[in-house]
Structure formats: C-alpha cells, structure tokens
C-alpha cells in the first residue's frame, strides 16, 4: 500500500478522521539514517504521529513533534506539513532490544522524558504544548497530550505491523477527534475499539486506507482529502552557510585556520554541504563588519 495521508469526517458522530500510512517512508528512513530495528520502529510511529498532528493545522503551517527522553534512543524529532510532507531524525540511531518491538520501544525511551508539539501559527509565532512521558509509548502519551494540553476529545492509535520478514511491513496512525457539537460517546466507542486492537486487526492484511478506517473507526466515513506522503527536506547550500555563520566571526576564523573549510551534514536527509575557504572568508568578513 502506498503511503497516504487521508482526511475525512464521520458526520453521524460529529467527528473528524485522519489516517496516515508511512510504511514506505519508514523503510526509506531506516536506510537513510542507519536505524537499528528498535530505533526504526520508534521513528515509524513518530512519522505517523507527526502527520496526524500536521493534518489538524487550520492555516496549512508546519508542525513539529519532539520527544526527549533519558533512554538510550534519547528522543526524536519530526517536522510535518498538512500536505503530506514529512522529515525527521532519531537522536540514538543504534538502538535495538530483541523481542517484542513495543516493549523494546518503551525500553529505548527509558523512564522519563517529555513529548512536545510545536505548531507554527503562520505569523512568526509558535504554540508549544508539552506533557511528561508517562506511558513511555508515543501513541499513549500523545493521547494524554490531546486530553491535557489541547483538551480535545480524541481517539488515537499508532501501529507498526510486521509482514513476513519485514518488521516495518506497515506503519499507520489513526485519529478520530470530536468536532464542536459532536457526540463524545461516539468518540469513546472508537477509543474502545482501538484499545481492543481494531487498528492492528485492520492492518493484518494489506488494505486501502478507507477499508482500514471503516474497520477501525466504524461506518459512515466521508472522504475530504487523500494525499501522497513524501519525505521532503528543505536543506540547501545557503542554509549550510547560515549554520556556519552562527559560530560567529571568531568561530569561522578558527575553522579557516584549522581546517580551511566546513562540512555541514543535514540532520534530516544526511546531505553533506562543503563551505569552502572563499565562502568562509566572506562570512567572516560580513560578521566582522557587523
């Protein structure tokens, strides 16, 4: 199944529905970032969660999902756009706990941490909401975020499903959220279905998004948008120069004297940019003049 971000409504319940499938993207990221199995599992969940969050943006601005923890994985960062564009990274890529992937993911996160959602308000302002990690599970703690930080009645589940020898056979997230005037009992029924394993059961065999939604969230889904998910990074040579400039005139001068060039590697896509001697001299001159 192709990676998709699907949005719609359950008119009878007065609720919105978002479904994110990111299996292809998660497998690509495993190679791109050199992720060990447990780190790859966590990142697959993070990619799906980030897209679910982004889909709720009213002004089509980006959303960041940031997880910081005291476990060996350290946390992760996902940057997502309502149009289906996503990128991110895991702090500790070389983490694997054999056995049950979900138990391994909890062990990788550790015993304490924070889940934060940073929403671009579109006017240079950002909203940041955070909750402490308690369940040490992205899906469960994201549900707490909606309940405590945004106070919106939300049913949500994240699932990473093995297919044959492929541990990242499918990776999906489903969100059902009550709209103003909606039926809270209907959302509670979806919440109970998801807690009973409805999403995992729906993903047991490959199925299109609308079939998964119907099986996990119930009948009556009205489609609003069906978009392709794409891993997109906006890095560039200019941004690499800007990153070097942050070091200040003295820092740039030190690089010039010791290395003669700076090599900047993008955290999101691993692209390497070389800022050569001439560019460094121009940056130092500009910073010194300021």
Characterization of this structure:
- It is a single chain.
- This protein starts with a strand and ends with a helix.
- The protein has two domains: 228 residues, Hsp33 domain (3-Layer(bab) Sandwich), CATH 3.55.30; 53 residues, Alpha-Beta Complex (CBS domain Like).
- The longest helix is centred in the N-terminal third of the chain and has 18 residues.
- The protein contains ten helices and 13 strands.
- It is of the alpha+beta class and 290 residues long.
- The protein is globular and about 65 Å long.
- A hairpin with a 2-residue loop joins strand 8 and strand 9.
- Strands 7-6-3-4-5-11 form a six-stranded mixed sheet, covered by helices on one side. A five-stranded antiparallel sheet has the order 8-9-2-1-10, with helices on both faces.
Q: According to CATH, what is the class of the largest domain? A: Alpha Beta
Given helix and strand content, the structural type is: alpha+beta
N/C terminus separation = 54 Å
Uncertain runs: none
- Helix content percent band: 25-40%
CATH-assigned homologous superfamily of the largest domain: Hsp33 domain
Estimate the mean pLDDT confidence.
94
Tally of DSSP β-strands: 13
Shape: globular
Number of helices: 10
How is this fold's topology laid out?
Blueprint: E1 4-10, E2 15-21, H1 23-32, H2 37-54, E3 63-69, E4 75-80, E5 85-90, H3 101-109, E6 113-120, E7 126-132, H4 138-150, E8 154-163, E9 166-178, H5 184-195, H6 198-202, H7 209-217, E10 222-228, E11 230-231, H8 237-245, H9 248-258, E12 262-265, E13 272-275, H10 277-289
